[in-house]
């Protein structure tokens, strides 16, 4: 009964978390109406650009390294299986779309976003909550939702979408470089890219973009939720970061798997 009680408690806590996330989602949408004010939009735009820079642009180097390694791995494995096959490039293009664009790309980009940026936002929110800075903002009649939530609400989905697009391009380039070294048939980068693009349907683009946008949205909301849940205790921030990371990974994989099952069944 003790084990069942713990499982039930964990399940209920995640259900309550999801309800709170949808509450944050609705709050963000409602508060976005205030952005029609020019003065508020100017302030929001500065905060949004700052968050987009910290979330997406600063993650470029780690995104590049992992994308290069994945591209090399994909090409080397494909070449070890097919060798000097006459339709090697066609087979690789289909495999690239199936593995990288459909599944691996969104997942790896999401994991980079969680590890590189989401934990930092959770820590920042936790620090503000622990030192009662949110109450100070309310006393000054400054909405924490407008100042802290909205930049994350818009920057995280866009950052993940750009990271995914960049990840694919770097994978393609690193694959082409390795193929040029291994394969006797020399093909230009433009032709190699066009062959891969021919395998990408409109459905692939819509589903991949949906994974990035929805995944980035819930990653951002989750880190805000756990950051705002910090208590005035010594280890509360580290505990919130740990819980936030776990929940974000579960949501990321759940969203990607559900969209893949719905779209490609």
From TrEMBL:
A GO cellular component entry from the record: ATP-binding cassette (ABC) transporter complex
Keyword Plastid: no
Transmembrane region(s): 29-49, 61-83, 95-115, 145-167, 173-193, 205-228, 248-264
One annotated GO molecular function: phospholipid transporter activity
Keywords of this entry: Membrane, Transmembrane, Transmembrane helix
InterPro entries: Permease_MalE
PANTHER family (alphabetical): ABC TRANSPORTER PERMEASE PROTEIN-RELATED (PTHR30188), PROTEIN TRIGALACTOSYLDIACYLGLYCEROL 1, CHLOROPLASTIC (PTHR30188:SF4)
Protein name per its UniProtKB record: Phospholipid/cholesterol/gamma-HCH transport system permease protein
Source species: Pseudoalteromonas denitrificans DSM 6059
